[in-house]
Amino acid sequence: MDAELAARLDAEQEALARLETIPGVARRTAEVLVAEIGTDLARFPSAEHRASWAGMCPGTAESGGRRLSGRTRHGTPWLRRTLAEVANVAGRTKGTYLAAQFRRIAARRGKGRAVIAVGHSVLVAISYMLTKKEPYHELGAQYFVEHQRDHVQRRLVRRLERLGFAVTLEALPATSG
């Protein structure tokens, strides 16, 4: 079986090597992803359409300004299951963007939703990696902290002011180390 799979995926070695750069994706997982998604991504107009086809996007049912069910559609079971495995493994890695995203969402919304969100991120990243022929670009575990630095700073200052403190912020000198 392995020999047959290797023969069929022989032309896709470059794509497989590129997918293995994603945290949580090993050789066999990359083979499943290529087999399910394919490397001709022209079937879908965007990565978001591909994620919806795979069943990795939450629903957006709304009526009268009220959000209803956010359930995902069924999608392709093999791809969905593989992306969920990748999300679970990536959520346990150290110092990666995907792990930070998993922990951030799991703390607020639960592990099930975190799995779908991280799986969605992985699928969108795969789409861009295969179309642009580039390896995975790691944003780092501190991405969310740096991305929302000003928002966190304002929120914490307001919180301290509500507790009765006068707050003045002074930047610390940069330390080398």
Oligomer: single chain
Amount of helix = 55-70%
- Look at the structure and give the mean pLDDT: 84
How many β-strand stretches?
Answer: 2
Task: Give the strand line-up of the largest sheet.
Answer: 1-2
- The ordered string of helix (H) and strand (E) elements is HHHHEEHHHHH
Query: What is the 3D shape?
Result: globular
Number of helices: 9
> What's the gyration radius in Å?
20 Å
DSSP strand content: under 5%
Specify the biggest β-sheet: 2 strands, antiparallel
**What is the SS-derived class?**
mainly alpha
How many structural domains does the protein architecture include? 1
**Gap between N and C termini, in Å?**
52 Å
